[in-house]
């Protein structure tokens, strides 16, 4: 209100108004004091890649799937869904909470086809602007209804997690997760930090294919984590951005969540269809919160909608239609499952190829972790300086934390990539 009122009162009074020095500065520019924002550590890499004219350039920065020719992929199941949607175009507003069909199908994927929680209507769920939007809605909800709570975030994590909870003004704490020497899970430290946190804390967990490390707890370790959470009365919030990308099977990749559900936890879950359906730009996702009973779920859902309403009013329709068309049709779902497996398998093949190439070059370092880690990323262990050399000398673009998006590795560039990595790690 103040801004608009100021503008109109300025134009009315313009002729007789003698501004002070500070106001004069404002009149020539309202936003002259705004400094450029720091580059995003992930999406900034894509910007730099696009600006590089080198024919040799390789982008293994952003986690976006490419085929073996380095080209973006539109899944066949998506193409078929698009054909069906085109025959019945819908441009209407969705309800504030989004498409109920899409939500129902998303919940079946996360909680299980025959989940009693779905039948008993105990899950408050809304369509969200992909995984990021789902996390942000949850963070805002957490701040609004449990204003004194904090969030425990693994070290390391996807850089945007920190931004999300920061902008929602939820204080952040961290727990240890990754062991730089073994390049695997630091399970004992993780358990210690969970144990030492105050009872009833909120924890952000990656449901599968941890970003950026590619390191997940084993099934047995998830069970131990779940038991410890139970004894501490912690709340697990799962970010499930890669369901299907860890094992090639979305059902298997939901294992961590199912373990927690079997143990009687109430959970939160952010789902994204960016990676597993290749719907990056469609912003299709779902936020769900398992509640104690149906009445609570109704109240929680209504509040989630209220948080979304002043931000984007209601979520976009097209991506939701694609998701519900695919998951709601047994034939299309079957095709989708095959295609997810195809993407996961190509990445697994590239892991083997990258490791073999490095070993053939005679690298004295161990590259075993490339094939031990799973999902879209390999946390290579390279330093920021080594990454800078890859970029400056070889036009290879990746995040400075040493994360390689295996989805950008192809049979055509794996040799070049291995050679460059070998040179900068000698
Ligand atoms: C990534 O980690 O590369 C992706 O999740 C893309 C993003 O938005 O950061």
How does this structure look, described?
Belongs to the class-I pyridoxal-phosphate-dependent aminotransferase family. The structure is a single chain. Helix content is 48%, strand content 13%. With 426 residues, it is an alpha/beta fold. The protein folds into two domains: 41-74 and 344-424, Aspartate Aminotransferase, domain 1, CATH 3.90.1150; 94-328, Aspartate Aminotransferase, domain 2, CATH 3.40.640. Strands 2-10-9-8-7-3-4 form a seven-stranded mixed β-sheet. A two-stranded parallel ribbon has the order 1-12. Residues 42, 62-63, 158, 160, 211 line the site of (2S)-2-hydroxybutanedioic acid. The site of (2S)-2-hydroxybutanedioic acid (LMR) has 6 residues, from loops.
What is the assigned CATH homologous superfamily of the largest domain? Type I PLP-dependent aspartate aminotransferase-like (Major domain)
How far apart are the first and last residues' alpha carbons, in Å? Answer: 60 Å
Strand arrangement, largest sheet?
Answer: 2-10-9-8-7-3-4
Q: How big a fraction of the residues is strand?
A: 5-15%
- Main sheet properties: 7 strands, mixed
- What is the average of the pLDDT values? 94
- Which residues form runs of ≥5 with pLDDT under 50? 1-16
Tell the overall outline: globular
The secondary-structure class comes to alpha/beta
CATH class of the largest domain: Alpha Beta
Bound ligands, each once: (2S)-2-hydroxybutanedioic acid
Q: How many strand units?
A: 13
Question: Over the alpha carbons, how many angstroms does the gyration radius reach?
Answer: 24 Å
Q: How many alpha or pi helices?
A: 18
CATH architecture of the largest domain: 3-Layer(aba) Sandwich
CATH topology of the largest domain: Aspartate Aminotransferase, domain 2
Give the number of domains. 2
Helix content: 40-55%
């Amino acid at each position: 209100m103040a801004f608009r009122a100021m503008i109109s009162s300025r134009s009315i009074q313009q002729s007789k108004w003698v501004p002070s020095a500070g106001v004069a500065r404002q009149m020539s520019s309202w936003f002259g004091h705004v400094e450029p924002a720091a580059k995003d550590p992930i999406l900034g890499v894509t910007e730099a890649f696009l600006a590089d004219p080198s024919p040799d350039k390789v982008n293994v920065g952003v986690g976006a799937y490419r085929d073996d020719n380095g080209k973006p992929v539109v899944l066949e199941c998506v193409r078929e869904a698009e054909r069906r949607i085109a025959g019945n175009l819908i441009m209407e507003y969705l309800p504030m909470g989004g498409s109920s069909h899409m939500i129902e199908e998303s919940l079946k994927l996360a909680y299980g086809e025959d989940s009693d929680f779905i039948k008993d209507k105990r899950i408050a769920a809304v369509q969200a602007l992909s995984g990021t939007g789902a996390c942000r809605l949850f963070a805002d909800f957490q701040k609004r209804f449990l204003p004194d709570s904090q969030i425990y975030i693994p070290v390391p994590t996807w850089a945007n997690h920190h931004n999300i909870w920061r902008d929602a003004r939820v204080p952040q704490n961290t727990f240890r997760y990754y062991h730089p020497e073994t390049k695997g899970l630091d399970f004992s430290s993780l358990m210690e930090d969970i144990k030492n946190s105050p009872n009833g804390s909120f924890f952000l967990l990656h449901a599968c294919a941890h970003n950026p490390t590619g390191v997940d707890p084993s099934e047995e370790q998830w069970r131990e984590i779940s038991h410890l959470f139970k004894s501490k009365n912690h709340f697990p919030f799962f970010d499930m951005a890669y369901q299907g990308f860890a094992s090639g099977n979305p059902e298997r990749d939901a294992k961590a969540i199912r373990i927690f559900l079997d143990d009687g936890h109430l959970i939160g879950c952010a789902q994204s269809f960016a990676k597993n359906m290749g719907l990056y730009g469609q912003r299709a996702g779902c936020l769900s919160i398992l509640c104690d009973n149906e009445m609570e779920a109704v109240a929680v859902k209504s509040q989630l909608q209220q948080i979304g309403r002043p931000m984007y009013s209601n979520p976009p329709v097209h991506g939701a239609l694609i998701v519900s068309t695919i998951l709601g049709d047994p034939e299309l779902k079957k095709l989708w499952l095959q295609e997810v497996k195809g993407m996961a398998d190509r990445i697994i093949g590239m892991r083997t190829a990258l490791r073999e190439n490095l070993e053939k070059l005679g690298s004295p370092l161990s590259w075993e972790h490339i094939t031990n880690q799973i999902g879209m990323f390999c946390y290579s262990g390279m330093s920021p300086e080594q990454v800078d050399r890859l970029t400056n000398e070889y036009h290879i673009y990746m995040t400075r934390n040493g994360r390689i998006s295996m989805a950008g590795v192809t049979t055509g560039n794996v040799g070049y990539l291995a050679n460059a990595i070998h040179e900068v790690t000698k």
